[in-house]
């Protein structure tokens, strides 16, 4: 069976998980009854809970977006085939087509995505108003 090698992000995840667990064991956190969720990741059940091997396995199998999918139309300079929109949210290579949603975020933010989406929409409204102010900017 092929076992995918661990990547840098997963290594960070493992260290983060171990740190989180260690934190939960401090006297201060115990005062608040902090404890680990003991539900085992199904594909890692055979490994010793909380061992490095367990965390390594968990990092490979625990994959979810926590409902924050982003990046399918990411913003970035033209030339990189993975970049879809420019800094004005205009689609590279097309005229006057903008993408205004979570998909333009190049990376998932650390926090929730709803407020940044609203901010992107506010910015887009300003960009569109600015464009309409000077109809020479419109190629229609
Ligand atoms: C269960 C859940 C919980 C979440 N909780 C939080 C939270 O607590 N805090 C937070 O900040 N974020 C939360 N999010 C994330 C947040 O809701 C999203 O990041 C945000 O709504 C993304 O906005 P969007 O405009 O990119 O996409 P959406 O809100 O998904 O809007 C896309 C719109 O396009 C429409 N659409 C799709 N295809 C077509 C089509 N072909 N033609 C016309 N219309 C189309 C859809 O009907 C929809 O209205 C949560 C998401 C989920 C799913």
From TrEMBL:
Q: Which SUPFAM superfamilies would you find in this protein's record?
A: FAD-linked reductases, C-terminal domain (SSF54373), FAD/NAD(P)-binding domain (SSF51905)
Q: Which Pfam families match?
A: GMC_oxred_C (PF05199)
Ranges where the Glucose-methanol-choline oxidoreductase C-terminal domain occurs: 31-121
What family does the Swiss-Prot or TrEMBL record give for this protein? Answer: Belongs to the GMC oxidoreductase family.
State the name under which the record lists this protein: Glucose-methanol-choline oxidoreductase C-terminal domain-containing protein
Species the sequence originates in: Timema podura (Walking stick)
């Amino acid at each position: 069976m092929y076992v995918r090698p661990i990547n840098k992000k997963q290594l960070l995840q493992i260290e983060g998980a171990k740190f989180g667990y260690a934190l939960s064991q401090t006297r201060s956190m115990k005062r608040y009854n902090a404890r680990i969720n003991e539900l085992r990741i199904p594909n890692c059940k055979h490994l010793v809970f909380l061992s490095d091997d367990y965390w390594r396995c968990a990092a490979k199998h625990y994959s979810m977006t926590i409902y924050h999918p982003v990046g399918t139309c990411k913003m970035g300079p033209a030339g990189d085939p993975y970049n879809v929109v420019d800094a004005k949210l205009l689609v590279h290579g097309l005229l006057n087509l903008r993408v205004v949603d979570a998909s333009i975020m190049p990376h998932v933010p650390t926090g929730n995505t709803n407020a940044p989406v609203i901010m992107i929409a506010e910015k887009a409204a300003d960009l569109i108003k600015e464009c309409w102010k000077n109809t020479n900017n419109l190629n229609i």
